[in-house]
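LOG
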Amino acid sequence: MKAAKATARDARFAILMDGDLTPTDRLRSQVAGARAIAADGGMRHAAALGLEPEVWVGDFDSTPDELLGRNGHVPRHDLPARKAISDGELAVMRALEAGARSLVLCGAMGGARSDHMLFHIMMALRIARERDIEVLLTSGTEEASPLLPGKPAMPDWPAGTLFSVIPFSPLSGLSIERADWPLDAVEVAMGSSLTLSNVSADGLRILLGSGTAALVASFDV
């Protein structure tokens, strides 16, 4: 008997991470119907997003007893506290092994540890480039996504959204159409603020010729 083909729902995963999260209507719509995996303290976001994680990954050394008790029915994958990879990355790896083609990393953009946020963005860039997988990082009030060379980005942000293109390498051939500050095939040095704090209009389109970059957008709530 042939195995059934994966459905769109089977291919989209929400990874619940332990950063700040505001459960906006936009975020709820982005994860509606997705399979979910919780990474340690990220389980605290499940109820607000209407998600039931199929597995809970973590070392649980700092997870409150109340959260553990309330979600004791969720299958757990216990990990050692001392390990070479974060709980969040291990949760992402589990989703990829399960056939994920789209990832929404919830709680990946905020929190007390800015180093975690930077690693999440770099991980998303690597996954998108190596596996051709859509990755969205979100806190509900802020989103980030990889900008890949040769693939036009046409975000569904409301007109007036504040956004930046963050260069993680020198960029070439960067064009931005339908924004307050349009650009036409420009070069951007790594670390330049040229692409900081733009404002989108309807029909925003962004194209990168070469380089490594991420889009970051902020939303009024």
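LOG (cont.) second protein
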Amino acid sequence: MAKGHRSQIKRERNAQKDTRPSAKLSYARVSVQKACFVLDAIRGKDANTALAIVTYNPRYASELIAKLLKSAIANAENNNGMDVNNLYVAECYANKGPTMKRIHPRAQGRAYRIEKRMSHITIVLDER
């Protein structure tokens, strides 16, 4: 059973909340493995370098991550008043989302299942 009044519990929970600027893309139509190839390339880099890497990366996931990175930079600038030149990618990860299951017809009346995977991609920035 929880201790204290509901408002006190909420206050304590909000005190522990992460205040770093971030952006999250839910239900991205790309698998976690494919998104992680791009995310691994930008992890720990400063924001401008990460944006350059993602812009010239040929993978499909890089387009989604570029848009997400621009959003996180805009959040840092407008909501937190941070300097864009001091930002770096503190965390970036992709979590597994729901899977759409589709059927592909095969020979002799058989049906093979195709799994179209989704992911939830998160980018967290921080100041140096």
